[in-house]
Structure to design on (331 residues):
């Protein structure tokens, strides 16, 4: 049961704080410094943040998510000058990508420094770094830095294998009951991109996309003048596991008409009689922005099947088809 007091949503476990002020963000940064967890909006999806230098705090992320310990987490910083602490080397093309697309929905995987411990990298010799673009996330990271913090480890704020949250309510629904009284959930409105960042491995002579996102292959090639390496990576990327990001409903891909089922498709496609329309985006951007919330809506409505008609084309459509594949129920 939740009640609203002032601008705080109070539940039995954790507060959702709306209308975040600078004071709120200072307090949230302090909470992270003190070893607590803070759910923060980002432009991609909501993240579950902990002090990346604090092993116990990062362990709690894994407990709250129910995630295996050998999966790496992304370190978030507020400024390019702060990445040196976490990495031991950076190729020229990665500097170009950082300058071009940060703050933004891109994660760079680089050789780790001695400070990027196994509890961050899942034991791998690389570390994932991102500067998010959401103003509230950036301000939180800046406050955290002012207080002596070096980076915030943050995976998506969902239980392992489930759909990433794109609102504070969805984050609360996913993990609220696993959080403690001193943890916080910050509300910054719906995430504008709606799917997770592009993860780019920058350890070879050319970039390799480990997870497609809003920073597309074309954008990377244009910025660096290099051809992206085709991905056959064995690097552990939890989002690359089959059936990741899956809702409870059975997800069917194609144009089959299943009576009583939900439908996610571009607005040009009409809703067959008897189906529940969950999203009808009129652009590829809108498709990405609404896809996860539409899957969630299908579960809320208790639908047993959701039919998804994927968008065609390159760019962001590739990332959307990737997430559709991960949500698809294998037969
Ligand atoms: O948009 C995003 O990236 C969101 C927001 C909160 O920043 N975060 C996110 O984190 O999606 P997560 O943990 O749910 O997914 C991060 C992905 C995982 O697939 C992880 O395996 C990969 O990035 N990753 C992180 N560090 C890595 C590394 N050192 N090597 C390879 N993959 C890495
Ligand atoms: Mg995730």
């Amino acid at each position: 049961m939740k009640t609203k007091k002032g601008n705080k949503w109070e539940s039995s476990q954790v507060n959702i704080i709306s209308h975040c002020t600078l004071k709120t963000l200072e307090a949230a940064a302090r909470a992270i410094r003190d070893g607590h967890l803070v759910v923060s909006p980002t432009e991609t999806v909501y993240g579950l943040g902990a002090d990346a230098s604090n092993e116990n705090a990062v362990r709690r992320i894994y407990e709250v998510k129910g995630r295996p310990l050998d999966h790496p987490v992304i370190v978030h910083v507020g400024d390019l000058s702060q990445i040196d602490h976490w990495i031991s080397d950076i190729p020229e093309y990665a500097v170009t990508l950082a300058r071009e697309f940060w703050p933004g929905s891109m994660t760079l995987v680089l050789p780790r420094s001695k400070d990027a411990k196994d509890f961050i990298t899942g034991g791998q010799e690389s570390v994932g770094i991102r500067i998010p673009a959401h103003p509230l996330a950036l301000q939180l990271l800046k406050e955290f830095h002012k207080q002596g913090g070096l980076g915030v480890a943050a995976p998506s704020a969902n239980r392992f294998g489930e759909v990433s949250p794109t609102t504070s309510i969805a984050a609360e629904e996913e993990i609220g009951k696993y959080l403690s009284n001193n943890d916080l959930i910050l509300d910054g409105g719906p995430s504008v991109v709606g799917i997770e960042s592009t993860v780019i491995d920058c350890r070879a002579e050319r970039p390799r996309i480990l997870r497609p996102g809003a920073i597309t292959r074309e954008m990377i090639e244009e910025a660096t003048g290099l051809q992206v390496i085709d991905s056959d990576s064995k690097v552990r990327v939890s989002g690359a596991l089959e059936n990741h990001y899956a809702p409870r409903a059975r997800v069917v891909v194609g144009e089959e008409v299943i009576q009583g089922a939900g439908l996610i498709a571009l607005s040009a496609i009409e809703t067959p009689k008897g189906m529940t329309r969950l999203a009808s985006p009129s652009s590829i951007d809108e498709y990405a922005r609404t896809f996860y919330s539409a899957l969630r809506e299908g579960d809320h409505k208790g639908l047993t099947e959701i039919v998804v008609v994927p968008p065609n084309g390159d760019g962001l459509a590739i990332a959307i088809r990737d997430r559709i594949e991960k949500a698809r129920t294998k037969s």
In short: Residues 1-10 have pLDDT under 50 and may be disordered.
